């Protein structure tokens, strides 16, 4: 009963009463000859003949479908054979590497894949979504810097962009004219020559932090969060927020939604974008309800401080800040489109700059508890250069290479975003003979690059000396850990501002405090582990520390400086 495929097409057409197809190899059988070939008894009733022919037709259709499906899979199979993706775990049929893609400590696991498969770039695929991870400085330079027209786009996360309100954060907008416009305006206010105007506010935040550390050293983590957030609010909106200010609380709660999104790894929604159309009340559609809650907070984070600043400007009581400069640039009367861009630039500065700085300062405190000898080494320099009558200023930086080396080592040791923010390949590409398909999520593994023993020998050791020459100056042959700030054209444009904040905060803390192990009620030192949270936005796992004034006049110096601010 089975048909040869060469005859299939013509047979179906004959049964349908159509003329033979052009170029048919075999003569198309007539209905009479079919009746004969199918062994249908010519004397059988018309109903029985029709039934047999219907069965025959159904089989023919099924075989055609089977043939189409088999051809489709064969083409896919051969295409994949021809396209050599970068190496990675083998994966399972249909779901691919769904269970291989790590949701925790991905930076370490992807680095291990590179070692196992002997390749700078590694690959995973799940349900048609390709992930390529770039694990070496050379490959990162070749791809992100060398091919910016391919790798400057951003991953279009449905959760981040469409449902949660984070589409306003221009760090995630697609590469194109709108991104260029955001970046151009932002750069005008954050290039190195524009930064001196922010130094007094950054210094004020650092000095307030010292005072809070004096009063309640055990709460150092929340003081660091306050100081980092208030410094950026002050620079962006000229809000002089004291601890507990509701404006700080609002932006902090909005920031928590981003941390939650990043902590969740790849949201199911991003693998199945169709799910965004599921009604929010359906069981299992909890992500939609979550996203609606996120959106309210994130919208408020962008809209409320911006609207308040504009109202203050109209009443003539706004202090100069980033947002007033942005508005003055367009005569305070922007078009609605321009207004949206300015609001996004102001809000993104807060969003991008607060948690990253908090995480870096937390990692600094952890390193100081764990490596007291490094702390003493840097404090010796501060005492020698700055003395004990004043606090360090930004103008001291050139004379304090140990402080700079310490900050560089903190950034190299562990990063707030060890896998950066995901980029996206805009078109198909080839690298080292491997195929990188258009639409792949491309991750720069900053952690792996900054733990490459060829560039940073003994990479797990915390050793700021690696950045210092024998004469005590900064070495020019050991690279600054740029990758902590991302890659290519999307590299963090706030990095110079961030380095100023870090310098002022780290130098001021070490000038007056000895950071030590906390002591429990029984007088025993509380143990501290070198441990970091395992998700996208990473920080030191919660730990205890004590901040003790280093010398008799330290407390007076802190209080006097706070009054002068
Ligand atoms: C230690 C502090 C900081 C770290 C570690 C950090 C890190 C990063 C990283 C990894 C990216 C993603 C780059 C990429 O996509 O390849 C980024 C983007 C960005 N950062 Fe930062 N950042 C810090 C502080 C800041 C500050 C203080 C600001 C603002 C004043 C800022 C503003 C931005 C913006 C606007 C983007 C998006 C750039 C774009 O998409 O073109 N960052 N940052």
UniProtKB/TrEMBL annotation:
Keywords: Heme, Iron, Membrane, Metal-binding, Monooxygenase, Oxidoreductase, Transmembrane, Transmembrane helix. The keyword Iron-sulfur does not apply. Heme binds at residue 492. Belongs to the cytochrome P450 family. The lineage of its organism: Eukaryota, Fungi, Dikarya, Basidiomycota, Agaricomycotina. It comes from Phanerochaete sordida. Pathway: Secondary metabolite biosynthesis. It is found in: Membrane. Pfam families: p450. It is a single-pass membrane protein. This is Cytochrome P450. GO terms for molecular function: heme binding; iron ion binding; monooxygenase activity; oxidoreductase activity, acting on paired donors, with incorporation or reduction of molecular oxygen. It comes from the Eukaryota. The chain crosses the membrane at residues 53-75. GO terms for cellular component: membrane. Its cofactor is heme. CDD domains: CYP64-like (cd11065). InterPro entries: Cyt_P450, Cyt_P450_CS, Cyt_P450_E_grp-I, Cyt_P450_sf, Cytochrome_P450_fung.
């Amino acid at each position: 009963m089975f048909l040869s495929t060469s005859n299939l097409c013509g047979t179906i057409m004959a049964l349908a009463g159509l003329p033979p197809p052009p170029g048919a190899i075999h003569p198309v059988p007539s209905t009479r000859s079919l009746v004969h070939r199918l062994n249908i008894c010519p004397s059988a009733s018309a109903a029985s003949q029709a039934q047999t022919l219907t069965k025959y037709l159904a089989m023919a259709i099924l075989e055609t479908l089977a043939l189409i499906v088999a051809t489709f899979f064969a083409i896919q199979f051969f295409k994949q054979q021809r396209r050599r993706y970068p190496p990675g775990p083998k994966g399972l049929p249909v779901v691919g590497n769904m269970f291989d893609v790590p949701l925790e400590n991905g930076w370490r696991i992807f680095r291990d894949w590179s070692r196992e498969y002997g390749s700078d770039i590694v690959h995973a695929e799940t349900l048609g979504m390709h992930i390529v991870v770039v694990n070496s400085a050379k490959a990162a330079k070749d791809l992100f810097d060398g091919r910016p027209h391919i790798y400057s786009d951003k991953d279009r996360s449905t959760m981040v962009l469409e449902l949660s309100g984070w589409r306003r954060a221009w760090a995630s907008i697609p590469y194109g004219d709108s991104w260029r416009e955001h970046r151009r305006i932002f750069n005008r206010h954050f290039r190195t020559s524009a930064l001196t105007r922010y130094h007094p506010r950054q210094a004020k935040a650092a000095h307030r932090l010292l005072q809070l550390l004096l009063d309640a050293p055990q709460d150092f983590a929340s003081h660091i969060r306050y100081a980092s957030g208030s410094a950026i609010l002050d620079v962006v909106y000229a809000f002089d927020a004291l601890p507990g200010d509701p404006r700080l609380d609002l932006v902090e709660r909005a920031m928590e939604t981003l941390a939650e999104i990043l902590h969740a790894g790849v949201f199911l929604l991003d693998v199945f974008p169709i799910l965004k159309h599921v009604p929010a009340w359906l069981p299992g559609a909890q992500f939609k309800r979550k996203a609606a809650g996120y959106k309210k907070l994130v919208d408020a984070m962008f809209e409320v401080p911006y609207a308040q600043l504009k109202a203050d400007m109209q009443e003539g009581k706004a202090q100069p800040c980033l947002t007033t400069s942005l508005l003055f640039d367009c005569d305070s009367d922007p078009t609605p489109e321009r207004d949206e861009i300015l609001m996004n630039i102001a809000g993104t500065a807060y969003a991008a700059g607060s948690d990253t700085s908090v995480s870096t300062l937390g990692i600094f405190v952890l390193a100081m508890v764990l490596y007291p000898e490094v702390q003493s080494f840097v404090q010796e320099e501060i005492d020698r250069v700055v003395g004990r009558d004043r606090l360090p200023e930004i103008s001291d930086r050139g004379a304090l290479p140990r402080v700079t080396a310490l900050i560089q080592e903190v950034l190299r040791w562990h990063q707030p975003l060890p896998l950066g923010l995901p980029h996206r390949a805009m078109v198909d590409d080839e690298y080292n003979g491997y195929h990188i398909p258009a639409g792949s999520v491309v991750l720069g593994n900053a952690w792996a690059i900054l733990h490459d023993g060829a560039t940073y020998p003994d990479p797990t050791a915390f050793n700021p000396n690696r950045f210092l020459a024998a004469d005590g100056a900064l070495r020019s042959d050991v690279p600054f850990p740029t990758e902590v700030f991302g890659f290519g054209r999307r590299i963090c444009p706030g990095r110079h501002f961030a380095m100023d904040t870090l310098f002022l905060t780290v130098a001021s803390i070490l000038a007056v405090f000895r950071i030590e192990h906390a002591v429990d009620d029984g007088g025993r030192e509380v143990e501290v582990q070198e441990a970091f949270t395992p998700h996208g936005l990473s920080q030191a796992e919660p730990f205890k520390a004590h901040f003790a004034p280093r010398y008799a006049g330290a407390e007076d110096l802190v209080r006097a400086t706070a009054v002068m601010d």
